[in-house]
Specification:
Blueprint lengths: L7 H16 L9 H20 L5 H13 L5 H19 L5 H47 L5 H10 L3 E6 L4 E4 L1 H7 L3 H5 L15 H9 L5 E9 L5 E12 L5 E10 L1 H15 L9 H12 L6 E10 L1 H8 L1 H18 L5 E7 L2 E8 L2 H15 L4 E3 L2 E3 L2 E10 L5 H17 L4 E4 L2 H23 L2 E10 L5 E12 L3 E3 L1 H11 L2 H22 L7 E6 L1 H4 L6 H10 L6 E6 H4 L4 H13 L2 E7 L16 E4 L14 H16 L3 E4 L5 H10 L3 E2 L10 H13 L1
Helix pairs in contact: 1-2, 1-4, 2-3, 2-5, 3-5, 4-5, 4-10, 5-6, 5-10, 12-13, 13-14, 16-17, 18-20
Length: 711
């Protein structure tokens, strides 16, 4: 038979056992080791619950740290051992099957909270002891003057039994008495301690105010002061303390002694430094992370006059492909190697490299001459990536795109600088990658404007900021108006009227083109119905509406036009949907099927911008189109006389081909009467352009159609 696997309670007890065995030897307690383990078991359960909780609660870790002090685990070694146990075994025994990386991060935060709770509880206990000592010290003033009366025994008990270090010195700085806790903190003998003078205990890390405060106290100008101070032990190591020094006066109120209370904070300081390092450095590469980088960048940008900064924002090209093909472990090794190479590029004073996350790195240089230095730094980074990186026996070529921002300190904030670098980096990536580009304020402004337009699009549709202008389609044979193309515009509150080229690509990128396109179709068909009701003596006006590539794959491509036409009471032949040639190049049957259904119902399909997509002319036979719209590039030369004979032959050939396939031909961009006449001679059917009318309100088209009907 196989043994049943340990349950959660068994693993919790095992963790408590390991914890008690580690901490018990350095704990001042009358309990036995098994009794001490039972005292730690509720604390272990509390840590386990905090580790697996839905949200992180620092108070849980702080409470556990405070409970250690209540359990007399006041020796700094006890805290160090407790944190080591939590670090090594909490996730192992209490993490169950959760995500290991997230649990380890939660464990580290619990350790930090435990240390904070331990420190706070120990500080409160220390302050309580300090108060008792201060009261005893006040009594001691009279003992010194009156040759030690009966309360000296109580003071001595507090003096020797205190967990914090205590020392008494005269006003000249000669040390008179020290307790055992102070001797243990310094690691020296009482004789060696009493042979020292207070002014000798200077340390390079002393804060500027430490010794002026001391001088004020011994002169009687100050009753006490509290500072964080470092000391040298006899072996040369550093002892960090929370130091409180109080002035003791005689019965007449004259200054007589100084009393020092010291709490050893060395282990806690080292723990805080370790946690600070982990909080400001990337766990994978060891580089500074986003937090530390922003601190350095903010400091560089707030430097004095004459100082400048240079920033290189690097994003690896094609890194996702490496992760997808070789796995994330290989991707991590690649990032570590890239980080090492980048680190070797920024070794000069004022330079640093950081990892922002993923495959994004930044390099910062500061000083008075960063205009030259940042270009050299970007060049070194590009050169460092030239040599392939070997991963699992494969030599991988690494490419990167870099955005470079340089300028004087004091003009921009960190967020603005990083945004400019990010925009510039994407500009380098759009240009093919494997290069660096310099920031361009005008390009930044355009990118920011595009972003602003993108975020404003959804609300603009809800607020009714879009409107439609109509450009007439004119028959070249009789000059009559046959319909109009609907062209959407955006009346932006800040930027005024925006044309479709300024926001349609953004709508396609965000997917908003589908509801926007449906709105344009509804409005245009409704307008066509109004034209039909008001028109007399001429045939119905047809409305042309553009379809974007995104709309071609939308499930409502067929049903939406059908429903809209039925609600408006229009026949399908009153609608023509325009699709760009490039959207249909290589289209398969699944993409063409909805268009075929619309064509079978009677909706005309026009192939817009024909001639710009380099499609195979033979493909025209398989496309469900009834109209070819020639791009204006074919007819621009016809604006002048005589027209280019080559262009005439090309247009003539395209018209002949279209007519042989029973396709009508519409020409865009007609701007002169000579151009219109030449196109009529070549056999084109309809045309549109400024020669006839610019896009305008729907009433304008009705007026043109009415004039045509009267004439």
């Amino acid at each position: 038979m196989t043994a049943e696997p340990d349950g959660p309670e068994d693993r919790l007890r095992r963790f408590a056992t390991i914890w008690s065995r580690a901490v018990f030897p350095v704990t001042s307690t009358s309990l036995t080791r098994p009794e001490f383990e039972m005292q730690l078991l509720p604390l272990a359960r509390r840590l386990s619950q905090a580790l697996l909780a839905r949200t992180f609660e620092a108070a849980e870790g702080q409470a556990v740290g405070a409970a250690l002090v209540d359990a007399h685990c006041t020796d700094p070694e006890a805290l160090s051992r407790a944190l080591d146990c939590v670090d090594a075994y909490l996730v192992l025994y209490c993490g169950e099957d959760g995500p290991q990386e997230a649990l380890r991060t939660r464990s580290a935060r619990l350790q930090h909270a435990m240390a904070a709770g331990f420190a706070q509880a120990l500080r409160e206990r220390t302050l309580t002891e300090q108060e008792a000592i201060s009261r005893a010290a006040l009594n001691a003033r009279s003992l010194v003057a009156e040759a030690l009366h009966a309360s000296e025994a109580r003071f001595r008990a507090v003096f020797e039994g205190a967990a914090i270090g205590i020392g008494i010195a005269d006003l000249d700085g000669n040390i008179l008495q020290v307790n055992g806790a102070l001797l243990r903190m310094f690691g020296g003998s009482e004789q060696s301690m009493r042979g020292r003078r207070v002014p000798e205990w200077t340390h390079p890390d002393d804060a500027p105010q430490v010794w002026p405060l001391y001088e004020e106290l011994v002169r009687g100008e100050r009753e006490h002061y509290h500072v964080e101070k470092a000391f040298y032990r006899p072996d040369g190591t550093a002892l960090w303390t929370n130091l409180t020094v109080s002035l003791l006066r005689d019965a007449d109120g004259e200054p007589q002694y100084q009393l020092a209370l010291m709490e050893d904070t060395t282990e806690r300081r080292l723990l805080n430094l370790r946690l600070r390092y982990e909080a400001t450095h990337d766990a994978l590469t060891g580089l500074p992370n986003r937090t530390l980088f922003f601190e350095r960048l903010e400091k560089a940008l707030s430097a004095g006059e004459g100082q400048r900064f240079g920033l290189c924002y690097l994003d690896l090209d094609g890194f996702k492909t490496i992760n997808d093909s070789l796995g994330h472990a290989a991707g991590d090794r690649l990032l570590v190697e890239v980080a090492d190479r980048l680190q070797s590029c920024a070794t000069a004073s004022g330079e640093m490299v950081a990892r922002l996350g993923g495959d994004e790195f930044v390099a910062l240089t500061t000083g008075p001459d960063t205009e030259r230095e940042v270009d050299e730094l970007a060049g070194r980074i590009m050169n460092a990536l030239v040599t392939p990186i070997s991963i699992d026996g494969r030599d991988l070529t690494v490419r990167g795109s870099i955005g470079v921002v340089e300028g004087p300190a004091g003009e921009r904030g960190p967020a603005e600088v990083l945004r400019s670098a990010d925009i510039t980096m994407y500009r380098a990536k759009s240009a093919g990658g494997n290069r660096f580009e310099l920031a361009d304020p005008e390009a930044d402004a355009r990118a920011i404007t595009r972003h602003g337009l993108t975020t404003a699009l959804p609300a603009a549709l809800e607020r009714g900021e879009f409107f439609i202008e109509y450009q007439p389609l004119v028959h070249l044979g009789d000059g009559g108006v046959r319909g109009a193309e609907a062209l959407v515009r955006w009346l932006h509150p800040q930027h005024g009227v925006l044309g479709p080229d300024q926001f349609i690509p953004l709508a396609e990128h965000t997917g908003l083109i589908v509801p926007l396109g449906r709105w344009v179709l509804e409005q245009s068909v409704r307008q066509a119905r109004l034209w039909q009701e008001r028109q007399t003596g001429a045939g119905p006006l047809r409305i042309n509406v553009n379809l974007s590539p995104c709309q071609l794959t939308h499930p409502g491509l067929v049903q939406d036009p059908v429903d809209i036409l039925e609600r408006a009471g229009l026949e399908p032949d009153a609608l023509c949907l325009e699709v760009t040639e490039s959207a249909l190049i290589g289209a398969d049957d699944d993409l063409l099927k909805p268009l075929r259904r619309l064509a079978e119902m009677g909706v005309d399909i026009a192939l817009d911008d024909f001639g710009t997509g380099y499609s195979n002319l033979a493909n025209l036979r398989r496309l469900p189109v009834s109209v070819l719209k020639l791009d204006r590039s074919f007819t621009q030369s016809m604006q002048q006389f005589p027209a280019d004979p080559v262009d005439l032959k090309i247009v003539e050939g395209l018209v002949t081909l279209a007519h042989s396939l029973d396709l009508a031909v519409t020409v865009e961009g007609v701007e002169t009467g000579a151009q219109a006449e030449q196109l009529r001679i070549l056999g084109c059917d309809t045309a549109q352009g400024w020669y006839y009318a610019r896009p305008g309100p729907p009433e304008r088209l009705h007026e043109l159609a009415l004039v045509d009907a009267i004439s």
